[in-house]
Amino acid sequence: MVEIKLYTPELHDKWNTFVAGCKNSTFLHNRDYMDYHSDRFKDCSLVAYAKGKIIAVLPANRVDNTLYSHQGLTYGGWLIPTKHFTIIDMLELFDEMKHFLSSIGIKELIYKAVPHIYHSYPAEEENYAIYKHNGKLLETNVSTTIPLTHPFHFNNNYKNLANFAEKSGVEIVESHDYEDFWDILGALLQEKYEVSPVHSIEEIKLLQSRFPKNIRLFTAIKDNTILAGSVIFDTGIVAHAQYIASTPEGREIGALPLLFKSLINKEFKNNQYFDFGISNEEHGNYLNYGLVMQKCRMGGRAIVHNIYKLVF
After folding, report:
1. What dihedral do alpha carbons 179, 184, 185, 187 form, nearest 10°?
2. Model's pTM, two decimal places?
3. CA–CA gap between residue 245 and residue 259 (Å, rounded)
């Protein structure tokens, strides 16, 4: 029999130990990452037990009568162990989840499935369970991804830009100069979208100090000046470009193509995937053609982040 309980801070260490062994988890599901913005979300994470042992966890927050998995995370449904958990277990887990959420006044669940590229072993049991519980596809966002075992080449224009930047003396380095890069990033986001980075400079520096092997900044520099950069969230399987930005001079000289050429072919060549990130706005309804084509010209192709709605 499966029993579901609410997460409490006393479970911090047990949660992290369990998540580290899951086949569809990343460092984003560690409580030391999740809880950096705990003041913005009412945590309502779930912990499932069988015979007194944790068998699954669901990062989640609550807004009125709706449970979200989790609004502060890009992805994260039920996180499950690599072994000893089957589709039969997932169906039982969803049955019990439905009863539990109804008992605490939750009427609907907005569920973010973990994209398959982040799985260390096949982990799509949740998709069938969602179907069996009449879940509806609420939102699809497109991310652009390169399989690093057999990547496409850059198109001729981006290849030429990368070569021009290299001949012009642009160098690619790992950096800890988050302040200068955040100035470039903030200016670019304000100019193009009138928004700010999801993480403040204080937040990204805090998270980087907690996860120094997973959160890394790479920059394209010339004459000790940053022309372009990208903050990479490295899960070990996926190197994900969480933030990308360049200066006007960087765009003119081809700094970003050279940066990504280096990251794809050298720094993260042993990962399984390089992911450029989502190119959608308005909950998936708008696809930024210019942005997605830039990523495609460097060899990326589409994977999707699906969000579902279940009503109880």
Report:
1. 120
2. 0.96
3. 11
- Whole-number percent of the chain with pLDDT over 90: 98
CA distance 165 to 158: 10
pLDDT tens figures, 101-142: 999 999 999 999 999 999 999 999 999 999 999 999 999 999
φ/ψ (deg, to 5) at 246: -145, 160
Residues of the chain with pLDDT under 70: none
Decide the pairing of beta strands 225-234 and 66-69. Answer: unpaired
Would you call 298 helix, strand, or coil by DSSP?
coil
* Helix H or strand E encompassing 71: none
The pair of three-digit structure tokens given for residue 171, joined into one six-digit string = 């160098």
Q: Which of 275, 300, 266, 302 is nearest to 158 (CA)?
A: 300
CA dist 209 and 108 (Å) reads 36
What are the CA-CA distances from residue 10 to residues 14, 15, 16, 213 (Å)?
9, 9, 12, 26
Distance from the Cα of residue 95 to its chain's centroid: 28
Q: Residue 202: CA atoms inside 13 Å, Cβ hemisphere, count?
A: 2
